[in-house]
């Protein structure tokens, strides 16, 4: 397997929920960071998820083009070619954090594009898309989610929704770090009343339990993973048709600075996808900085000298950065329990 089919992706998520592990969902911004993520998944013998944000999608199209739909399509086609060289892992492609102001210029056109692909017997370019309604009322959030879920069914993709607000800043979206960062059991019940439990289309849910985007020291983020258990069990108790005591496929956003035991607890309650962005960005860029500092005289033409081409060649520091980011991906796979569990 290479890029997940719709059925394979569903199998991946169900296996993670049943097996008590989660997949790292690695945000990428370039072909280099894509290759680094794939290298990490392959070395960890883990399936995984690759995702692009609204800013990354535009960036991938190039500064002069600046079109997030073009960037997304071009990226997905490139990714399929490269992922095909990793036959022992399955990777799903995902678009991340589409806020309301970007729907008409990004995810809705992509879903229409994919529905057209499906109508011709093809697999959709992406396997899932995230609708981020965290900045609007829950009523409006779920109203839009319902519309997008119908489109997702036609496109044979899975929808990800966010219920509540994640603190900090992510690609231009920001929220205060306060007591509003916690979803409730009633929020879970409302989601089921509006979207169902899979019979109207499959979706993942990112309930908030104190999550914060960005880089923070351990202990700064006040997570309450037990809230996820309350939401799962409270929802299951209210809907007899629920799938056991974990009716939701849960997603963990804003995990940088979280303690390992908090991550493990969240995964035990049904988290099947954890977004990894800040830490892999740092791993990649730190390696670039190391290379430049260690080879300062060679990468710059100091005092009229000519430098050393093999050291300022982007491929030299690029390979070092890919290795460093791949190591962080392996760490995430190990921590989330997906290492060694690639579906065969």
TrEMBL record:
Catalyzed chemical reaction(s): beta-D-fructose 1,6-bisphosphate = D-glyceraldehyde 3-phosphate + dihydroxyacetone phosphate
Cellular component annotations (GO), alphabetically ordered: cytosol
Q: Fetch the InterPro entries from UniProt.
A: Aldolase_TIM, FBA_II, Fruct_bisP_bact
Tell me, in a sentence or two, what this protein's role is.
Answer: Catalyzes the aldol condensation of dihydroxyacetone phosphate (DHAP or glycerone-phosphate) with glyceraldehyde 3-phosphate (G3P) to form fructose 1,6-bisphosphate (FBP) in gluconeogenesis and the reverse reaction in glycolysis.
Q: Which family does it belong to?
A: Belongs to the class II fructose-bisphosphate aldolase family.
Which of this chain's residues are annotated to bind Zn(2+) 1? 97, 213, 253
Binding site residues for dihydroxyacetone phosphate: 214, 254-256, 275-278
As one GO molecular function, the record gives:
fructose-bisphosphate aldolase activity
Q: What's the name of the protein?
A: Fructose-bisphosphate aldolase
Q: How is the cofactor bound, in the record's words?
A: Binds 2 Zn(2+) ions per subunit. One is catalytic and the other provides a structural contribution.
Which residues does UniProt mark as catalytic? Answer: 96 (proton donor)
- Write down the superkingdom of origin: Bacteria
Which cofactor does this sequence's record say it needs?
Zn(2+)
- Name the GO terms of the biological process aspect: glycolytic process
């Amino acid at each position: 397997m290479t890029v997940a089919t719709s059925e394979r992706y569903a199998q991946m998520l169900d296996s993670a929920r049943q097996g008590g592990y989660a997949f790292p969902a690695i945000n990428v911004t370039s072909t280099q960071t894509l290759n680094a993520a794939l290298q990490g998944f392959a070395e960890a013998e883990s399936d995984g998820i690759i995702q692009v944000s609204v800013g990354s999608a535009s960036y991938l199209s190039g500064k002069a083009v600046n079109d997030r739909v073009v960037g997304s399509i071009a990226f997905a086609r490139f990714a399929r070619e490269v992922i095909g060289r990793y036959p022992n892992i399955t990777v799903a492609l995902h678009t991340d954090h589409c806020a309301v102001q970007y729907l008409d210029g990004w995810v809705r056109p992509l879903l229409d594009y994919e529905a057209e692909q499906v109508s011709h017997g093809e697999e959709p370019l992406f396997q899932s898309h995230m609708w981020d309604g965290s900045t609007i009322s829950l009523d409006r959030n779920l109203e839009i989610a319902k519309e997008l879920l119908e489109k997702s069914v036609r496109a044979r993709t899975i929808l990800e929704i966010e219920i509540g607000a994640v603190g900090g800043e992510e690609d231009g979206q920001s929220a205060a770090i306060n007591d509003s960062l916690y979803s409730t059991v009633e929020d879970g019940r409302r989601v089921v009343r509006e979207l169902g439990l899979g019979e109207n289309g499959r979706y993942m849910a990112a309930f908030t339990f104190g999550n914060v985007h960005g880089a923070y020291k351990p202990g700064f983020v006040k997570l309450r993973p037990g809230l996820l258990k309350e939401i799962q069990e409270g929802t299951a108790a209210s809907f007899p048709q629920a799938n056991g005591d974990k009716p939701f496929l849960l997603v963990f956003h804003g995990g940088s600075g979280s303690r390992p035991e908090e991550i493990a607890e969240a995964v035990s309650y049904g988290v099947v996808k954890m977004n990894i962005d800040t830490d892999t960005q740092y791993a990649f860029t730190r390696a670039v900085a190391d290379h430049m500092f260690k080879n300062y005289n060679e990468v710059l033409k100091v005092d009229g000298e000519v430098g050393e081409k093999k050291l300022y060649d982007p491929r030299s520091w690029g390979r070092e950065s890919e290795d460093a980011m791949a190591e962080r991906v392996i760490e995430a796979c190990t921590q989330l329990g997906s290492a060694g569990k690639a579906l065969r």
